[in-house]
Amino acid sequence: MPVVDAAALRALMRDLLVAAGCSEAAGIQTAEALLEADLRGYAFEGCRHLPALVRDLRAGRVNARARPRIVEERPASALVDGDGGPAPVGGSFAVDVAVRKAGQAGCCAVGLVNTDPLYMLGYFGERLARAGLVGIIGSAGRPRVHPPGGVDPILGTNPLTIAIPSAGDAPLIVDFATSRLAFGFVLEAERRGQRLPEGVAIGPDGHPTCDPVVAIAGALTAFGGYKGFGLALCVGLLAGPLVGGAVGQTMTAAPRPGRRTNRGALLIAVDPASFGDPREFADAVAAHLREVKQSRRAPGVEAIRLPGERSRAERTRRLRAGVPIEASVLDELEALAQDLGIGAPRLPRRVQADTVSARGSDTPA
Fold first, then answer.
1. Which position among 16, 32, 182, 254 has the lowest Cβ density within 10 Å, counted as fewest Cβ atoms?
2. What is the pLDDT of residues 154-169, one digit of tens each?
3. Is 243 left (phi over 0), alpha (psi -120 to 50) or beta?
4. 1-59+322-352: which CATH topology?
5. 159 in Cβ contact with 239 (< 8 Å)
6. pTM strictly above 0.85
7. What's phi and psi for 320, nearest 5 deg?
8. Does 247 have pLDDT greater than 90?
9. DSSP 3-state assignment of 97?
10. What does the pLDDT look like over 48-78, one tens digit per residue?
11. Is 203 helix (H, G, I), strand (E, B) or coil?
């Protein structure tokens, strides 16, 4: 698989986005978020998503010149309208609002509507944690998951992120879809001609399937039985109707006037200083994580791995050694650059086997 320099990939994505109509700032924000997905091994949330985004920008389905704004505000809450723009633009604005308001009020809730789907919520959660805040983020997605005992796709994969600052090397980031597999993983399996694991999806007839094509026509299964189902249900309602977005089948309806999407997300930020010394809290988090890591291992287990640990190590490796990108994806990006008139991009390639799956295994997404 070809490997490209991370900085060169970021620059190309920025240039493509700017050529598609985005401002320089929006291009940088969006390219940075997509690169983070590729660095962590989540290929379907990275640069592979860019050609579709550029098509949407050029067609006006996504607002290239979006200017997110606060449309409702109270001391400890805000509602942000993303102005129909790329998710990293609206998401970054909402994070900045949450950081400011949590610093003032001690905690806050920020709703985000009218934006492209938020990919890799952990990216935004980590920004909250790096600011010293506990972050909880949920996003309501299109109906792709069946309820237990049901057949129809009614719930979204409705991802959830919890981010906790730590005095250790990095914050604790838990980021997962509430379906047994993220939908992007199913699309990756379809594209690569791979089978799905057992028990993750059903076909339109309600029977279990390992065929991604049949799963896309059918529905995914929530993780953890009724517990995962209950969590998916709540995330959808809180990140959808609570903030003015949609949930379930209404997600596929035409957006309300003045909006381009029915998507919604909810960001909650808590300043540990509201309850005591934030340094003591961060020390306690780090101490407990060490306790978990150093606890006795089961036979045959080399190490106990914390959520986010694999992707963080992969990010470090790829920043140093380069980012594995499939040749077909690079070809599409280079063709897109020619089409947009920015010239042939300079992405030197070298071949290297990629050791990380399309989704990774930090959490049960």
1. 254
2. 999 999 999 999 998 8
3. alpha
4. Hypothetical Oxidoreductase Yiak; Chain: A, domain 1 (1.10.1530)
5. no
6. yes
7. -85, -45
8. yes
9. helix
10. 999 999 999 999 999 999 999 999 999 999 9
11. coil
